[in-house]
Amino acid sequence: MNDISNPYQAPEANLVAETSGGDWTLAEPRRVPVSHGWKWIADAFRLFARSPGIWIVNLLIFWVLAMVASVLPLVGMLATIPIVIMTGGLMRGAYELDRGESGLKIDHLFVGFRDRLGRLAAIGGLYLLATIVIMFAVMIPLFAGIGFIAASTPALDEYAVFTPMIIAVAVMFVLFIPVTMAYWFAPALAMMHEDADAIRAMKLSLVGCLRNILPLIVYGVIMTLLLVLASIPLFLGLLVMGPVMVASMYTGYRDIFVTAADDEG
User: Fold this and answer.
1) How far apart, in Å, are the Cα atoms of 75 and each of 1, 64, 72, 184, 244?
2) What's the distance, CA 196 to chain centroid?
3) Considering only Cβ atoms within 10 Å of each terminal Cβ, which end of the chain, N or C, has fewer?
4) Contacts of 53 (CB under 8 A, 6+ apart)
5) 126-158 tens-digit pLDDT
6) Residue 168 is part of which domain span?
7) pLDDT at 94 over 80
8) What pLDDT, on the 0 to 100 scale, is given for residue 58?
């Protein structure tokens, strides 16, 4: 706080607190109660219930485009980038649906290609780069280790091969945790806030996740169980749970990053 008795004191700026963003004020990520892990899912169900048909249509288009992009020669892995861009568009759609400004539209799926394209594509590129680095960092030692075992063990049994593979999968899973945290809220942050470029959006997403590990664990356990249950009847339940999971990315972002004043407004 400035001392008003000293007219020569330099003004202070709060570089950690809120900064003006696009539609909402971007607040420093806050800690929320553990029970909010379930609240994000419950709120996502309510958003889905407001426009279930369009949610399902958007999800089907999303899946089809993602699958087509993933099987194209030479560009399969690059499908990550349009997936992130479309996710950003759905975040905008969820916002407008949540605020009552309009209903969800098919057009929302492609908003990211017109608005915030550069930063959303950068988020997808960074996520893809991190994925490639992790895969190479794990797979090269894995195959080298298997080759060494095969060369040094005359009677190679299946356990000698499976053990390093299991270790490699476990290491890869651990390494992907912070990468997923950095990505999880980044599309919403980049789409909703003018001052959240790709790097800042991913940093804030990582910080927001780290500050809310327990709610995220609750969220992850419940969401995993619901997805498993949704897969049982010929995967038809995923037509509901798929949109709900996408919507929960928005509801979690809103809970952690949006100021109370903006949320009420």
Assistant:
1) 53, 16, 6, 23, 29
2) 15
3) N
4) none
5) 999 999 999 888 887 766 666 666 666 655 555
6) 50-252
7) yes
8) 93
Coil, strand, or helix at residue 153? coil
Joined tokens for residue 27: 């607040």
* Alpha-helix runs per DSSP H in the chain: 36-50, 52-71, 80-99, 117-152, 158-184, 186-192, 198-210, 213-231, 238-257, 260-264
pLDDT score at 66: 80
The dihedrals phi and psi of 9, each to the nearest 5 degrees, come to: -70, 135
Residue 3 within a domain: no
Whether 182 and 159 have beta carbons less than 8 Å apart is answered as: no
* Number of domains composing the chain: 1
Question: By the 8 A CB rule, do 17 and 254 touch?
Answer: no
Domain membership flag for residue 154: yes
Average pLDDT of the chain is 83
Is there a domain that residue 221 lies in? yes
Write down the pLDDT at residue 257: 93
Inside any domain, residue 257: no
Amino acid at 10: A
